[in-house]
Amino acid sequence: MTEYGPRPVDRRLPTEEARDLLTLVRELADREIRPTAAEEEDAGHFPRATFTLLSQAGLLSLPYDEEFGGGGQPYEVYLQVLEELAAARLTVGLGASVHTLACHALAGYGGKEQRAEHLPDMLGGGLLGAYCLSEPSSGSDAASLTTRATRDGEVWTLEGTKAWTTHGGVADFYTVLARTGGSGAHGITAFLVPGDAKGLSAAVPERKMGMKGSPTAQLHFDAVQIPDSRRIGDEGQGFAIALSALDSGRLGIAACAIGVAQAALDEALTYTAERRQFGRPIVDFQGLRFMLADMATQIEAGRALYLTAARLRDAGLAFSKEAAMAKLFCTDTAMRVTTDAVQLLGGYGYTLDFPAERYMREAKVLQIVEGTNQIQRMVIARHLAGPEQR
């Protein structure tokens, strides 16, 4: 690292405990994640051992109450942990965010006995979760989902197909949204489904342009039976639970996006400081310096935006608009910054020998998952101007 090369992010953290936590995460990422990230992504290797390590270290439970094995950390801190993990390898950072999303329904809406029975293992017992909302014909229009749960006494039977499930086929549990009533948002209920449930199967994972180490697959529910004790919340409450989870999940995606962007900027800084042309480092050329300045400014703005939303959430205030803004801005920033990083590396940026091209491919999916950026603009506009007239 040159004198003016990349350096650790100067973070404003609320406590010394949080500062120690971020130091631990950075050291763990440097030791256990970053060295093999490129090789494992290229091979499509899912890092299950890494998630087990994160669970053992308490890093998959950070924003949840200590009563049931959570870390008791504010979102302001948790999101910065995600950023560090995503900077090392997006498969890990986004995977941690998805696991947190999968725990949200039970932690926030489950009964006390349900939480006592399941949450300790979900949060710190080495388990990995997934979230099942989207379907082949209902992505952005999630309220039109058709996977159905039918009740017979104390048993529910699930039939249908879920799509675009991160950790599909490898998760230990799934939070599943299924239709238990009529059409529309009010007929949907949430369930906690074990990963080894009879009748549950996963299709071959999707072949993706990035995040090849993170399996994304359809899940088929063929007469999957689960007891009513695994229903989360009231019948018909599922869509409200899903929206609540997505507000928080969008902040996780925003933090991951800034992590990827920061990694790309660091790579560009290192390369331009070391690469010499016309007798001097190319970082001395004003055109390149201006690009680096713009990249750094966008990253800092995105980080400030997601942290503002997180602090609103931590204070118990409404943050849906700010979460949509953060997801929109941070993921668009990741796309711009990673594209510029490829450009700054020139021909080398287009090769597999440098990580810039991987960052660019990974950034693209962040503009799509957990609500496309077009959906985020709709959400923001509704907060500003009210619902669309139909």
Q: How does this model look, in words?
A:
- The strands form 3 sheets. This protein has a 4-stranded mixed sheet with strand order 1-4-5-8.
- It is built from 11 helices and 10 strands.
- The protein has helices at residues 16-33, 37-43, 48-56, 75-88, 90-109, 112-124, 238-274, 286-314, 320-344, 356-366, 373-385; strands at 129-132, 148-152, 155-166, 173-179, 188-194, 200-202, 216-227, 231-232, 276-277, 280-281.
- It is an alpha+beta fold and 390 residues long.
- Helix 5 (90-109) runs antiparallel to helix 6 and helix 7 packs parallel to helix 9.
Give a brief outline of the structure.
With 390 residues, this protein is an alpha+beta fold. The chain has 11 helices and 10 strands.
Key structural traits:
390 residues, alpha+beta, four-stranded mixed β-sheet, four-stranded antiparallel β-sheet, 11 helices, 10 strands
Could you tell me how far the N terminus lies from the C terminus, measured between alpha carbons in angstroms?
A: 57 Å
Largest sheet: 4 strands, mixed
Which sequence of SSEs, written as H and E, runs from N to C?
Answer: HHHHHHEEEEEEEEHEEHHHH
Overall geometry comes to globular
Low-confidence stretches: none
Level of helix content? 40-55%
Average pLDDT reading? 95
Alpha carbon gyration radius = 21 Å
Class of secondary structure makeup: alpha+beta
What is the count of β-strands? 10
Q: Total number of helical segments?
A: 11
Physical arrangement of strands within the biggest beta sheet: 1-4-5-8
* Percentage of residues in DSSP E strands: 5-15%
